[in-house]
Amino acid sequence: MVPFMLGRPFGTPGDAAFQRSVILQALGLLERTDGPVILEHFAQDDASGRDRAGWVAALALPEPGPLETPAQWAGALQAELACVLPLWQSARLRSARTTVGLAGQPPEAFADFAAALLAGQCPTVAAHSSSALAMRFMADDLKALYGEALQSQDESPSARQVDTWFWRSTVAGRLLIALRTLSLNSPDNAIRTVGSRFLVPVPWLPG
Predict the structure, then answer these.
(1) In CA terms, which of 34, 72, 202, 203 is 20 to 30 Å from 6?
(2) pLDDT for 42-80, tens place per residue?
(3) Alpha helix locations (H) across 96-130?
(4) Distance CA 206, CA 124 (A)
(5) What span, in angstroms and rounded, lies between the C-alpha atoms of 169 and 165?
(6) CA-CA distance, 207 to 197, in Å (whole number)?
Protein backbone atom coordinates (compact mmCIF):
# COMPACT_ATOMS: atom_id res chain seq x y z
CA MET A 1 0.00 0.00 0.00
CA VAL A 2 1.35 3.45 -0.91
CA PRO A 3 0.04 6.87 0.17
CA PHE A 4 -0.51 8.07 -3.38
CA MET A 5 -3.62 9.01 -5.30
CA LEU A 6 -5.72 6.10 -6.53
CA GLY A 7 -4.50 5.04 -9.97
CA ARG A 8 -0.96 6.30 -9.33
CA PRO A 9 0.76 3.42 -7.52
CA PHE A 10 4.21 4.79 -8.36
CA GLY A 11 3.44 8.43 -7.69
CA THR A 12 3.89 11.36 -10.03
CA PRO A 13 3.45 10.48 -13.74
CA GLY A 14 6.60 11.07 -15.74
CA ASP A 15 8.88 11.33 -12.71
CA ALA A 16 11.19 8.39 -13.42
CA ALA A 17 13.49 9.01 -10.45
CA PHE A 18 10.63 9.06 -7.97
CA GLN A 19 9.00 5.99 -9.51
CA ARG A 20 12.32 4.12 -9.37
CA SER A 21 12.61 4.86 -5.67
CA VAL A 22 9.12 3.46 -5.10
CA ILE A 23 10.00 0.25 -6.94
CA LEU A 24 13.29 -0.13 -5.07
CA GLN A 25 11.58 0.28 -1.71
CA ALA A 26 8.94 -2.26 -2.72
CA LEU A 27 11.59 -4.75 -3.79
CA GLY A 28 13.44 -4.11 -0.54
CA LEU A 29 10.48 -5.55 1.35
CA LEU A 30 11.26 -8.93 -0.23
CA GLU A 31 14.54 -8.99 1.62
CA ARG A 32 12.88 -8.64 5.00
CA THR A 33 12.51 -11.77 7.12
CA ASP A 34 10.15 -10.37 9.74
CA GLY A 35 7.06 -10.56 7.53
CA PRO A 36 4.35 -10.11 6.73
CA VAL A 37 5.64 -6.58 6.24
CA ILE A 38 3.69 -3.39 5.75
CA LEU A 39 5.56 -0.24 4.85
CA GLU A 40 3.61 2.27 6.90
CA HIS A 41 5.58 5.37 6.01
CA PHE A 42 6.99 6.27 2.61
CA ALA A 43 9.93 8.59 3.15
CA GLN A 44 9.52 10.74 0.06
CA ASP A 45 6.72 13.16 -0.74
CA ASP A 46 4.79 12.71 -3.97
CA ALA A 47 4.82 16.07 -5.71
CA SER A 48 1.57 15.31 -7.56
CA GLY A 49 -0.25 15.41 -4.24
CA ARG A 50 0.73 19.04 -3.54
CA ASP A 51 -1.39 21.85 -4.97
CA ARG A 52 0.53 24.38 -7.05
CA ALA A 53 0.01 27.77 -5.43
CA GLY A 54 -1.79 30.27 -7.62
CA TRP A 55 -2.35 27.74 -10.40
CA VAL A 56 -4.98 28.63 -12.99
CA ALA A 57 -5.76 26.45 -16.00
CA ALA A 58 -4.10 27.88 -19.10
CA LEU A 59 -6.51 25.97 -21.32
CA ALA A 60 -9.23 28.44 -22.31
CA LEU A 61 -12.59 26.77 -22.87
CA PRO A 62 -15.67 28.27 -24.54
CA GLU A 63 -18.52 29.31 -22.29
CA PRO A 64 -21.42 26.93 -23.02
CA GLY A 65 -24.95 28.06 -23.70
CA PRO A 66 -28.00 26.33 -22.22
CA LEU A 67 -27.47 22.63 -21.45
CA GLU A 68 -30.96 21.23 -21.47
CA THR A 69 -31.47 19.14 -24.60
CA PRO A 70 -29.27 16.33 -25.95
CA ALA A 71 -28.44 18.49 -28.95
CA GLN A 72 -27.30 21.35 -26.72
CA TRP A 73 -25.07 19.02 -24.71
CA ALA A 74 -23.60 17.59 -27.92
CA GLY A 75 -22.87 21.03 -29.35
CA ALA A 76 -21.23 22.24 -26.16
CA LEU A 77 -19.04 19.15 -25.86
CA GLN A 78 -17.99 19.38 -29.50
CA ALA A 79 -16.99 23.00 -29.03
CA GLU A 80 -15.00 22.15 -25.92
CA LEU A 81 -13.28 19.17 -27.52
CA ALA A 82 -12.21 21.41 -30.38
CA CYS A 83 -10.06 23.25 -27.83
CA VAL A 84 -8.89 20.23 -25.84
CA LEU A 85 -8.07 17.75 -28.60
CA PRO A 86 -5.18 19.66 -30.24
CA LEU A 87 -3.44 20.01 -26.89
CA TRP A 88 -3.99 16.33 -26.08
CA GLN A 89 -2.76 15.24 -29.52
CA SER A 90 0.42 17.30 -29.09
CA ALA A 91 0.98 15.78 -25.66
CA ARG A 92 0.45 12.27 -27.01
CA LEU A 93 2.96 12.78 -29.81
CA ARG A 94 5.50 14.31 -27.44
CA SER A 95 5.29 11.55 -24.83
CA ALA A 96 4.56 8.71 -27.29
CA ARG A 97 1.89 7.35 -24.93
CA THR A 98 -1.68 7.87 -23.79
CA THR A 99 -4.25 6.08 -21.65
CA VAL A 100 -7.05 7.17 -23.98
CA GLY A 101 -8.44 4.40 -26.18
CA LEU A 102 -10.80 2.27 -24.12
CA ALA A 103 -13.97 3.68 -25.65
CA GLY A 104 -13.72 1.87 -28.97
CA GLN A 105 -14.59 5.09 -30.77
CA PRO A 106 -12.65 8.30 -31.49
CA PRO A 107 -13.12 11.31 -29.21
CA GLU A 108 -14.81 13.15 -32.07
CA ALA A 109 -17.71 10.67 -31.75
CA PHE A 110 -18.24 11.17 -28.00
CA ALA A 111 -20.66 14.09 -28.33
CA ASP A 112 -23.15 12.26 -30.56
CA PHE A 113 -22.84 9.07 -28.47
CA ALA A 114 -23.54 10.97 -25.25
CA ALA A 115 -26.45 12.81 -26.86
CA ALA A 116 -28.02 9.49 -27.82
CA LEU A 117 -27.72 8.30 -24.23
CA LEU A 118 -29.28 11.51 -22.95
CA ALA A 119 -32.13 11.02 -25.40
CA GLY A 120 -32.91 7.64 -23.82
CA GLN A 121 -31.42 5.55 -26.60
CA CYS A 122 -29.03 2.61 -26.16
CA PRO A 123 -26.20 3.26 -28.63
CA THR A 124 -23.44 0.69 -28.96
CA VAL A 125 -20.01 0.48 -30.55
CA ALA A 126 -18.34 -2.55 -32.09
CA ALA A 127 -15.72 -2.80 -29.34
CA HIS A 128 -18.23 -3.32 -26.52
CA SER A 129 -21.16 -5.64 -26.05
CA SER A 130 -23.54 -3.18 -24.42
CA SER A 131 -24.43 0.48 -24.13
CA ALA A 132 -23.45 0.33 -20.47
CA LEU A 133 -19.88 -0.73 -21.20
CA ALA A 134 -19.58 1.74 -24.06
CA MET A 135 -20.75 4.52 -21.73
CA ARG A 136 -18.33 3.52 -19.00
CA PHE A 137 -15.29 3.48 -21.27
CA MET A 138 -16.28 6.70 -23.00
CA ALA A 139 -16.34 8.30 -19.55
CA ASP A 140 -12.90 6.87 -18.76
CA ASP A 141 -11.51 8.20 -22.01
CA LEU A 142 -13.00 11.66 -21.47
CA LYS A 143 -11.44 11.96 -18.01
CA ALA A 144 -8.07 10.72 -19.25
CA LEU A 145 -8.09 12.90 -22.36
CA TYR A 146 -8.80 16.10 -20.43
CA GLY A 147 -6.29 15.23 -17.72
CA GLU A 148 -3.51 14.47 -20.18
CA ALA A 149 -4.20 17.67 -22.11
CA LEU A 150 -4.17 19.83 -18.99
CA GLN A 151 -1.07 18.25 -17.47
CA SER A 152 0.91 18.75 -20.66
CA GLN A 153 1.28 22.43 -19.74
CA ASP A 154 4.58 23.69 -18.36
CA GLU A 155 3.04 24.46 -14.97
CA SER A 156 1.57 21.04 -14.18
CA PRO A 157 -1.10 21.17 -11.44
CA SER A 158 -1.63 18.64 -8.67
CA ALA A 159 -3.93 15.69 -9.26
CA ARG A 160 -6.51 17.33 -7.00
CA GLN A 161 -6.39 20.52 -9.04
CA VAL A 162 -6.87 18.53 -12.25
CA ASP A 163 -9.95 16.84 -10.79
CA THR A 164 -11.40 20.10 -9.50
CA TRP A 165 -10.94 21.70 -12.90
CA PHE A 166 -12.50 18.77 -14.76
CA TRP A 167 -15.55 18.31 -12.54
CA ARG A 168 -16.25 21.97 -11.83
CA SER A 169 -15.11 23.84 -14.93
CA THR A 170 -15.73 21.68 -18.01
CA VAL A 171 -18.75 20.64 -20.02
CA ALA A 172 -17.32 17.11 -20.10
CA GLY A 173 -17.43 16.85 -16.31
CA ARG A 174 -20.95 18.26 -16.13
CA LEU A 175 -22.00 15.87 -18.89
CA LEU A 176 -20.83 12.81 -16.96
CA ILE A 177 -22.73 14.03 -13.91
CA ALA A 178 -25.85 14.45 -16.08
CA LEU A 179 -25.39 10.97 -17.54
CA ARG A 180 -25.08 9.52 -14.06
CA THR A 181 -28.29 11.23 -12.94
CA LEU A 182 -30.14 9.95 -15.99
CA SER A 183 -28.73 6.44 -15.60
CA LEU A 184 -30.12 6.06 -12.10
CA ASN A 185 -33.62 5.91 -13.55
CA SER A 186 -32.82 3.74 -16.56
CA PRO A 187 -34.86 0.56 -17.10
CA ASP A 188 -31.58 -1.10 -18.10
CA ASN A 189 -29.97 -2.62 -15.00
CA ALA A 190 -26.49 -2.54 -16.51
CA ILE A 191 -26.76 1.17 -17.28
CA ARG A 192 -28.01 1.84 -13.75
CA THR A 193 -25.06 -0.07 -12.31
CA VAL A 194 -22.44 1.60 -14.48
CA GLY A 195 -24.01 5.02 -14.03
CA SER A 196 -24.14 4.81 -10.27
CA ARG A 197 -20.67 3.31 -9.74
CA PHE A 198 -18.28 4.17 -12.54
CA LEU A 199 -18.99 7.58 -14.07
CA VAL A 200 -18.48 10.09 -11.25
CA PRO A 201 -16.21 9.67 -8.20
CA VAL A 202 -17.97 10.14 -4.88
CA PRO A 203 -16.23 13.45 -3.99
CA TRP A 204 -17.69 15.03 -7.12
CA LEU A 205 -21.28 13.89 -6.81
CA PRO A 206 -23.85 16.71 -6.64
CA GLY A 207 -24.53 17.81 -3.08
Answers:
(1) 34
(2) 666 666 567 888 888 888 899 999 999 999 999 999 999
(3) 110-118
(4) 27
(5) 5
(6) 16
